[in-house]
Batch of 4 targets.
Target 1
Amino acid sequence: MKRLICLLILILVGWIFVPPAKAPKNTNSCFLILAGEPIYILNIKDPVLRAFVWFESRFIEDIVNPVSGARGILQILPPMIKRANSILELQGSNLRYTWDDAFNAKKSIEIWYLVQNYLNPTYDVRKACQIWFGIGTQYDGLTWIGYEREILILLNS
């Protein structure tokens, strides 16, 4: 029993004080390191999407931005849900996404590809940054240009 309690304390301390590790570039699986052990949580083969997910959420599915309210692995906001649904409507689909779908990794990725395929058919990273970040300046001073810089660093690391 003492060993189990010690192990749980070590895991908790490691979880609190050890930052998540970035998935190696040459792997198809994305993972975080928790107490020295990899935990595979998503299988994202697309390096562009993997970079966006890493930057936005560090692969944490239920994360919420305390300032903007953005949700999930891709930090989706209501205007992105609205945009995805308008694209679906234009395509004649009866499918619609809800605000709660932002917490679903699979549906968030579907939204990503729906929007990117429609607005960015060449899958240009710069355009992807403009689409996903939006216009203007974020609460912390970040603009889409700084956002693009961060995504490019992740893609080239």
Target 2
Amino acid sequence: MPRPIHFEIPADDPARAVTFYRAVFDWKIDRWEGPQEYWLVTTGEGDEPGINGGLAKRRHPGEGPANTIGVPSLDAFVERVQESGGTIVAPKMAIPGIGWLAYCQDTEGNTFGMMEADPAAT
């Protein structure tokens, strides 16, 4: 059964947001060395319940946080989203060395991501 594996927090000023979340929750937040401006958020130890996430520059006004769900086949789940009345807002894209990602909206307008792990993604 697919589960949430990652969250993303959009920010108008990522540096300010990083400072805030470090101060409030003591989260470990490090700049990702990938091809885009992105910060990896570690919220706890690996043996504790919970998920880690990311922080990025807000892409459009009103963009809110999004959860990403791990799926075994991104193509199959994109199809399921569409068949169930949802929409694809950002089609399948590679996150190099991590996997394949797409963003969708449910029937209520909530945005979420779906990720298929694939270290060979380019």
Target 3
Amino acid sequence: MISNPQLRELSLAQLKGKWAHTFLLSLIYAAINGATTNLPIFLPLRLFAHYIILLPLFEFGVIQYFIHMARKEVASPKDLLAAFDSESLASVIILFLVKSIFISLWFLLLIAPGFIKACSYAMAVYILRDNPNMKPLDALNKSKIMMDGHKWQYCCLILSFTGWFILSLLTFGIGLLWLIPYMKLSSANFYENLRNLATADLKT
């Protein structure tokens, strides 16, 4: 397993020359996010449509985009709509819903167990993306297995962006349009490294 500094360095190298594209993706995503949270419909229905349906589907598209980048494949802003074309559309919604419920229940106990579970389930969406016929619970369980022994490293990877996040807030959030691609690609590379590690273990 390569180190977090190496993952960040790899992600920055992959982003070189593509910042304009990822900036555009972030801008489109932010615009969609803002538009769906302000739909002119009854508030409970609006929250349901945004958090339970639209947000998971567009988040899946973001993951698709950065997986393509991590694998040196063609990535396009059209990837944002990937879930709407996917045979796993319903599974994406169910996965995000079940994942959110599980993590929330763990957070009711203590912050630490909730954060640990969040790390355990972090690869579930990537797994579902690569296995569209997989059941949501199976994707969550496979993520738990994949993250066994790697949760702390992933936690440290996410926390390593804290300083950049604070600086981005000082720019009234504009800096997030560059920071989020950097974070998302680093997470995608983390998954790719874990997946390759698991494949290598199977061959030995």
Target 4
Amino acid sequence: MYDGGKPRVTESRDKVRGDAARIWLYMVETYKVKITPAQRKMFEEWSAADPVDDFERLRDTRINAAQGNRNPFVN
């Protein structure tokens, strides 16, 4: 957000950074969302530091059941 002064920056908590990163990487690959090389590197680092957990696998399975597609960064 920008309020005319210094831009405000937020980041995800450590325990969900990998989840957020894999969502972003999916959006980049599937919908061609543009990110910078630095952002891609950060998301790849976040994904490696916070591996896929059971909740994320279950979420991906449910999305697949509803939409018929999976996030390749989760599987």
